[in-house]
Design goal:
- The structure is a single chain.
- With 150 residues, the protein is an alpha+beta fold.
- 26% of the residues lie in helices and 37% in strands.
- It has helices at residues 20-28, 73-80, 88-94, 118-123, 139-147, and strands at residues 12-18, 33-36, 46-52, 58-72, 100-117, 134-138.
- A six-stranded mixed β-sheet has the order 2-5-4-3-1-6.
- The N and C termini lie far apart (38 Å).
Amino acid sequence: MAEEMPELDQDRMVVLSLKPRFAEAILAGTKTVELRRTTPKIEVPTRALLYASSPVRALLGKCIITSVKSAHLTDLWREFGSRADLSYPEFRRYFEGVEVGTALTLDEQRPLSRRVPLQDLRAKPRGFRPPQSFAYVDSKTGNRLLQMAA
């Protein structure tokens, strides 16, 4: 019998800031795991908004984070490296200076109907700032950001 997925966190979302190549790979389905040096404090499943950093600087899509797993880097690479869409040297460079990393498993990746550029994001909701790595937003703010793409 398949285990049922718990209900989505309805109170907040996570905005993931990504290099454009990784944001595009997530939306193309070739990257199904996002690796992070810092573990987000979330309940899974949680909705995530995908923000592509420079030079794109726009909200591109959305997905669901279905699991969060922290592990020693050797184990992290062994279990998730093939799904993270990066080379082993890139992996080592990214995690330089730490021994433990985190893998966010992604599902239901969807591009937005139109990209929402940073200047629009800053205008409404007022004061939106894209995160360096990730940030939490309440569902009301997250839904307003998604409506901007409609």
